[in-house]
Amino acid sequence: MAEATELLRSEGLTVRYGGIEALRGIDIYVNSGETVVVVGANGAGKSSLMKAVIGMVPVAGGSLVFEGQNITSTSTAKRAKMGIRISPEGRRVFANLTIEANMLAGGYTMSTKERAASMEWLFDTFPMLADRRNAKAGTLSGGQQQMVAIARALTARPKLLLLDEPFLGLSPVAIAETSNAIRVVQEQGMAVLISEQMARPALKLASRGYVLRSGSLRRSGAVAEIRELALSEDYL
Ligand SMILES: Nc1ncnc2c1ncn2[C@@H]1O[C@H](COP(=O)(O)OP(=O)(O)OP(=O)(O)O)[C@@H](O)[C@H]1O
Ligand SMILES: [Mg+2]
Question: Which atom, in ligand 1's list, is nearest to the CA of 164?
């Protein structure tokens, strides 16, 4: 087997909001093509970690390296061009735009031709998107909106897909459908970093993970090694 290449690494990552330290010295890494999960309860710092990786919150300490380049002070737009995309917490689809327009918005960095090819692939792979391409995203179910948010992030064919609480508020059926969509992404060889409070379905998708509590990592390792603590965080 080829040796794993490191895609993302954080070292000593610290995020503060005024006097609140949301993340304290976080060390994580994601290899190419790998799925990594960060499990944590409400307020653990999951979104702060995701936002720090895409550059939506300033880093108060530590560093972020993507494909060997220090991106700690790189703009969000530049990071998006480098191949880091997110489906944010709460999905945040453009409710008044169609599914197709939401997907087009995700491909703003691409040429028209590349973008059309990418959307063609997404429509073929996820038939719901094709069937409802002209429906306004605001009229869709939570699970369908999650699919649109993931598709929007995928249009640009990122190297690293971030999913901030993809299962939040979804029915068991929609969680299963979203999980299947994430498996398709994995088969494409993309790396995925998932943050979740719902440890059980998230752990099924990952090979490795971290347990985050009150801004610090409590455990890291293979899914088998973190499972017990991760599941207990769910009930805090
Ligand atoms: N913009 C902000 N201003 C001040 N404090 C914030 C801000 N955003 C987050 N916090 C605080 O930082 C800590 C971590 O919040 P964060 O949103 O990263 O956690 P989370 O794990 O994503 O939680 P949730 O499960 O509710 O989404 C919390 O104490 C939160 O109140
Ligand atoms: Mg959050």
Answer: 22
Q: How far apart are CA 236 and CA 231, in angstroms?
A: 10
Hey, what domains does the chain have and what are their CATH numbers? 6-233 (3.40.50.300)
Looking at the CA of residue 197, tell me the nearest atom of ligand 1: 25
CB atoms within 10 A of CB 217: 19
pLDDT digits (tens, 9 = 90+) for 174-231: 999 999 999 999 999 999 999 999 999 999 999 999 999 999 999 999 999 999 999 9
Phi, psi of 190 (to 5 degrees): -80, 150
Tell me the pTM: 0.95
Give burial (CB, 10 Å; 0-12/13-18/19+) of 9: middle
Name beta bridge partners: 45: none
pLDDT 10s digits, 10-56:
999 999 999 999 999 999 999 999 999 999 999 999 999 999 999 99
Residue with tokens 């088969």: 187
Ligand 1 pocket by Cβ (under 6 Å)? 17, 20, 22, 40, 42-48, 89, 197
Token pair belonging to 192: 């995925």
Angle in degrees, 0-180, between the axes of helices 142-154 and 99-106, rounded to the nearest 10:
30
List Cα–Cα distances, 44 to 50, 172, 207, 215, 222, in angstroms. 12, 24, 21, 5, 20
Instruction: Please name which ligand lies nearest the alpha carbon of 215.
Output: 1
Half-sphere exposure of 140 (CA within 13 A, CB side): 29
Which ligand is closest to the CA of 214, given by its number?
1
